[in-house]
Design brief:
Blueprint (H helix, E strand, L loop, with lengths): L1 H14 L14 H38 L5 H14 L3 E2 L5 E2 L2 H12 L1
Antiparallel strand pairs: 1-2
């Protein structure tokens, strides 16, 4: 029955003076489609490069701030306190003495020989 309807439609359109087959969809212009695809690809590349550069610079500047002591204040204070502990003499609460790490290593080496 569907076949009959298609044939009747084609037959009626031939008699009305139209020679257009309506079963074919409109084809998009190839040049316009190609231009849109190329522009989209180029803009995607530009956004990717910008994002990479921005993130790289941000990460690098944060790394520099932390390494220069201008970043995480808690980390800087901790490092200073550890350096003080490792390089100073002090009497501890339990009666023992704290000596610099370099001096302690020298004493351990002397005891071993």
């Amino acid at each position: 029955m569907l076949k009959n309807l298609k044939q009747n439609h084609l037959f009626s359109s031939e008699h009305s003076g139209k020679n257009v087959i309506e079963d074919e969809p409109d084809k998009p212009p190839v040049l316009t489609t190609a231009v849109i695809v190329l522009i989209s690809f180029a803009s995607l590349i530009i956004v990717a490069i910008f994002s990479y550069t921005f993130l790289w610079k941000t990460t690098e500047s944060e790394f520099d701030r932390v390494n220069n002591g201008m970043g995480n204040e808690t980390k800087v204070n901790y490092d200073k306190s550890q350096e003080k502990i490792l390089s100073s003499y002090e009497k501890l609460e339990n009666g023992n003495y704290q000596i610099p790490i370099e001096k302690a290593m020298e004493l351990v080496i002397k005891e071993q020989h």
